[in-house]
Amino acid sequence: MKFVVKKKQSPTEKEILEDIELVFKKLRKRSLTIKEYDENGCYSSSTAIRRFGTWNNVLYKLSIPSNNTFYSHSDLMDN
Q1: pTM (2 decimals)?
Q2: Does residue 64 surpass a pLDDT of 70?
Q3: DSSP class of residue 10?
Q4: DSSP 31
Q5: Of the candidates 43, 38, 57, the residue with the CA atom closest to the CA atom of residue 12
Q6: Would you state the pLDDT for residue 26?
Q7: Which of 2, 3, 62, 70 has its CA 20 to 30 A from that of 24?
Q8: Phi and psi angles of residue 11, each rounded to the nearest 5 degrees, phi first
Q9: Whole-angstrom distance between the N-terminal and C-terminal Cα of the chain?
Q10: Three-state SS letters, the chain
């Protein structure tokens, strides 16, 4: 018997997004963190980040709210 090594293909963008959405729905949370996805997803969050630039870009593509709070310069200076 001959041993054949098959090169594993990288997941498509669609597969990555579908898996992230599946994990988000499974966890039933308001948002999804990198850690939560890494613990429950089929792929690494770094794969998604490499494909889409940032984790927030991934969440935006799926219409998942981000946990990040952004403050304006004036908000920061008022405190």
Answers
A1: 0.76
A2: yes
A3: P
A4: S
A5: 43
A6: 97
A7: 70
A8: -70, 150
A9: 72
A10: CCCCCCCCCCCCHHHHHHHHHHHHHHHCCCCCCHHHHHHHCCCCHHHHHHHHCCHHHHHHHCCCCCCCCCCCHHHHHHC
